[in-house]
Design a protein that fits this description.
CATH topology of the largest domain: D-Maltodextrin-Binding Protein, domain 2
CATH class of the largest domain: Alpha Beta
Radius of gyration: 20 Å
Number of helices: 12
CATH superfamily of the largest domain: Periplasmic binding protein-like II
Strand content: 15-25%
Order of helices and strands: EHHEEHEHEHEHEEHEHEHEHHHEE
Number of domains: 2
Length: 305
């Protein structure tokens, strides 16, 4: 297949769906495709644009629905098991408040914030040049938002492995060994950026990693892939290893932030979320999850002047 073009089998793998579903999408004209010499072909750049448009249109629909619910906020972006616990605690303290959260990845969360499709973006995007998180990307991806960046927590990220680490995974170079199956996060996620940065720093080509193209959208899916035996190693938060009883090899301590417009920050939903973040109910729920640091939780790290 020529560079930049995919056939039905390749686009099915790229979208993580069955090939029959691709034909169904073609039949209903819901996916861009072209027919040449009797075969369906899909330009990768067009498919990427189609994925982004459909993801954002879904967020836009959610945005419109959430506006019908009093006290509702829409969040999108990165993923961490603690976000679910935090939102559950918010609901217990303030049953009248709703936060609907979509796992789109850090980059897509910021892009949705710029387009007005979400109120809050969860993000942990590392800027390799400065070593700073999230703030260097604001001018590029959310230029029209009067952004405020608030820290939620720091967390340990690392390799998640089967109990006992049977393959002896210790570093990124081990991912390229024969017989090691990797499970990846989607492009645009902070975890994917962390992986690619470390591979580049070590001079390792992604093509050498078996499973690099196999993507999931959440940390818990990474852990479940290891637990089920579908993969040998993936990168996830330490909470996943604790919750699923998996081994963990730390590789980075990263900052996880909330980004929103300054007008949204002062709304009751966000202010209540900050109170719950530093409240006894949430802290008791997460006290046994190692690898998290709440010393700066709720601190404003940046405001657009």
């Amino acid at each position: 297949m020529s560079e930049g073009m995919m056939n039905t089998r390749e686009v099915a793998r790229y979208l993580d769906i069955h090939e029959k579903q691709v034909y169904a999408l073609i039949k209903t004209k819901k996916i861009p495709a072209t027919r040449m010499t009797g075969k369906w072909l899909f330009p990768k750049c067009v498919i990427d644009d189609w994925i982004e448009r459909n993801a954002l249109s879904g967020l836009e629909q959610a945005r419109r629905k959430s506006e019908r619910i009093a006290g509702a906020l829409l969040a999108s972006g990165s993923n961490d098991p603690l976000l679910d616990i935090l939102q559950t605690c918010l609901k217990k303290v303030h049953p009248e408040l709703f936060i609907f959260s979509a796992n789109t990845g850090s980059r897509e969360g910021l892009l949705a914030l710029e387009k007005g499709f979400t109120d809050i973006a969860w993000s942990h995007l590392l800027d390799p040049e400065s070593g700073e998180y999230n703030i260097p990307y604001l001018a590029k991806w959310v230029p029209s938002v009067n952004a405020v960046v608030v820290n939620l927590f720091y967390r340990e990220m690392g390799f998640v492995l089967a109990g006992g680490n049977p393959l002896g995974i210790a570093g990124f170079e081990d991912l390229t060994r024969d017989g090691v199956r990797f499970i990846n996060r989607q492009e645009g996620s902070g975890t994917r950026l962390l992986l690619d940065h470390n591979l580049q720093k070590a001079g390792l080509q992604p093509e050498r990693i078996t499973g690099y193209e196999n993507e999931v959208f959440t940390h818990i899916e990474v852990g479940l892939s290891i637990l089920s035996g579908e993969a040998d190693v993936g990168i996830a938060t330490v909470a996943v290893s604790t919750l699923l009883g998996l081994d963990f090899v730390p590789i980075a301590r990263e900052r996880f932030d909330m980004i929103c417009d300054q007008s949204v920050f002062f709304q009751k939903g966000v202010q209540s979320l900050m109170q719950v973040l530093n409240g006894d109910l949430f802290r008791q729920r997460v006290k046994n999850l190692r690898g998290y640091d709440f010393s700066s939780a709720g601190r404003i790290l940046y405001t657009k002047g």
